[in-house]
Amino acid sequence: MQTLVLGDLELTAVSDGTYFLDGGGYFGVVPKKLWEKKAPANQDNLVPTGLNSVVVRNGKQTILIETGIGNKLSDKMAKIYGQPAKLIDNLASAGIAPDDIDIVINSHLHFDHCGWNTVRHGDAVVPTFPNAKYYAQHGEWEHAHQNQRDSPSYLTENYDPLVKSGQMTLLRGDQEIVPGVSVRVYPGHTRDMQAILLRSGGKAACYISDLIPTSAHIELNWVMAFDLYPVETIESRKRYYAEALAGKWLTMFTHDPAIPWAYLEKDGKGKLIAQTP
Ligand SMILES: [Zn+2]
Questions:
Q1: Rounded to a whole number, what is the distance in angstroms from the first to the last CA of the chain?
Q2: What spacing in Å lies between the alpha carbon of 268 and ligand 1's midpoint?
Q3: Residue 209 C-alpha to ligand 1 middle, in angstroms?
Q4: 98 CB-side CA count, 13 A
Q5: 216 CB contacts (<8 Å, ≥6 apart)?
Q6: Do 225 and 25 touch, CB atoms closer than 8 A?
Q7: What are the tens digits of pLDDT across the range 180-214?
Q8: Under 8 Å between Cβ of 87 and 68
């Protein structure tokens, strides 16, 4: 478990474990000969994929960014992806109980990003974090209810009970959640995927989610085949890199199995590299 101090904020990287994605889906048009050097695949072409959440503490509130896969997958989905379900144990190891979480922010509502939002309790689906206010984008929630290419990735029980009870707030575009913690929409992976931007003491960190899922994806054109709008992914990355490199932002990776965060820099040849703190 890694921790880091960013101004007045304390960041803790907490994982829900490792699951598996097909390397072709993961790296899109990039030839396997190139990507397998950075992300070795197994005999079934599956690449181990991290499920990184970040806990942010500001002295008043405990904020959880992203909630992994959770423990409610169907047998069929668990067979395809695995269902490590380690987040609650790993939070406990960091001294954090579900009751302690004041705010949950989901970058988007695909099953591997909001799975621990809720748990099953008998026949009911209840919030895992009973005291938390949850946040997601309104456009993302609308999209989750449209029958589109990625609809198998949306499991309504991860968010609809929270929207219905009023515990989840649906945001419309860029917004500050609490001082120093804001969200920014970066279209590409989905139309309304949001990154979570932290600022304190002149420093910044950004949970960039599936816009740049791992440190192996930082090359501008290394875009996932899962992305609904790959050309917009590249445009959003340009916008992100311009700010993040100039401002020396810490980039937090949602799916990197080894590196939860790194500073992105250009090497002598102008190639982007990830430097761990
Ligand atoms: Zn996604």
A1: 14
A2: 33
A3: 8
A4: 13
A5: 35, 38, 39, 222, 256
A6: yes
A7: 999 999 999 999 999 999 999 999 999 999 999 99
A8: yes
